[in-house]
Automatic annotation (TrEMBL):
Coiled coil: none annotated. The chain crosses the membrane at residues 6-29, 36-52, 72-98. Residues 122-296 form the STAS domain. Its main location: membrane. It is found in: Membrane. SUPFAM superfamilies: SpoIIaa-like. GO terms for cellular component: membrane. Keywords: Membrane, Transmembrane, Transmembrane helix. It is a multi-pass membrane protein. GO terms for biological process: transmembrane transport. PANTHER family: SULFATE TRANSPORTER. This is STAS domain-containing protein. Pfam families: STAS, Sulfate_transp.
């Protein structure tokens, strides 16, 4: 009974104390909630302020990540946490799209005494295989970068089907005109044939004074094979697949063999679903770049020292 009365008295005293604080000195504690909230926010922001030390590191390592950091910081301060977070996420997505649209591409060369193929621009020991161009693209292929892939392929390898076709058409026109005019076609470099009768001057056949001489420019030396290294390609969509099939047809029309190497299992499944192999045979696929190069060399063995020089 006494304990029960003591508890009630203690509760009464506590209530009176709270009443006195609220009525008499409540104005003293009026800014306390805001102060406590500010302290909580400052403690949580200490980690964010410490990240300011990452700015010099990001400046040296990745300008894109630095731009994401600055965008998130400024938008959160000016627009608030909710809108700032949305702006930073949208900007981050744009940077991903930019990276996939403009990835690094390079021509690979063979490291002697190994089966490794690395960029010829970064490694001095790497050398290109004779008559074979190996092109590597550092991103997946989809509608946003398919045109960039085709342009980089022709620019990096230096092999343009359109240029080869135009040169061949120009030479055919010259040959056709020369036949109509009964002119003599003389190549810039005439081969020495032991069975040729008559006297030769300066390595060229004798030309009669009444005949017109037409010099043919040789076709640009194009490689016989092109290897597409898809080891960095994670996925491909229908637009990119159609573009690749079209460029393979263009190279095939100018007698340049195109093979694909380094496809992953998931990428092969996507190519099957996109009916990529209706126009491109499965024999054009190889597990590694080295296997593709060996296959191309079996059809066109490299020239060795002492082989006679051929002219177009």
């Amino acid at each position: 009974m006494c304990a029960h009365v003591f508890v009630q008295v203690a509760g009464l005293l506590a209530s009176l104390m709270v009443l006195v604080v609220v009525v008499a000195i409540g104005f003293v504690f009026e800014p306390l909630p805001q102060t406590a909230l500010a302290a909580i926010i400052m403690v949580n922001l200490l980690g964010m302020f410490k990240q300011l030390r990452d700015i010099p590191y990001l400046w040296r390592t990745s300008k894109i990540e630095l731009s994401i950091w600055v965008t998130a910081f400024v938008s959160s301060v000016l627009l608030g946490l909710d809108l700032g977070l949305l702006v930073s996420i949208a900007f981050g997505i744009l940077t991903v799209i930019y990276r996939t649209q403009n990835p690094r591409s390079s021509v690979l060369g063979h490291v002697p005494d190994t089966d490794l193929y690395v960029s010829v621009d970064q490694y001095e020991e790497a050398s290109e295989e004779q008559g074979i161009k190996i092109f590597q693209y550092g991103s997946s292929l989809y509608f946003a970068n398919s045109d960039h892939y085709m342009s980089q392929l022709k620019e990096q390898t230096g092999v343009s089907p359109e240029q080869i076709q135009s040169v061949r058409r120009a030479q055919k026109k010259k040959i056709h005109k020369s036949k109509e005019k009964h002119t003599l076609l003389v190549c810039a470099k005439a081969e020495n044939h032991s069975s040729t009768s008559g006297r030769q001057q300066n390595g060229c056949l004798p030309v009669q004074e009444c005949e017109e001489v037409v010099f043919l420019h040789p076709v640009p030396c194009a490689p016989h094979s092109l290897v597409l290294d898809w080891s960095c390609v994670a996925f491909i969509d229908s637009v990119a697949a159609k573009a690749v099939k079209q460029v393979i047809k263009e190279y095939t029309a100018v007698d340049v063999r195109v093979v694909i190497a380094g496809c992953s299992g998931g990428l092969l499944d996507e190519l099957e679903q996109l009916q990529f192999f209706t126009d491109v045979p499965h024999t054009a696929l190889f597990p590694t770049v080295h296997d593709a190069v060996l296959h191309c060399q079996t059809f066109h063995p490299p020239l060795t020292f002492g082989d006679p020089e051929t002219s177009v």
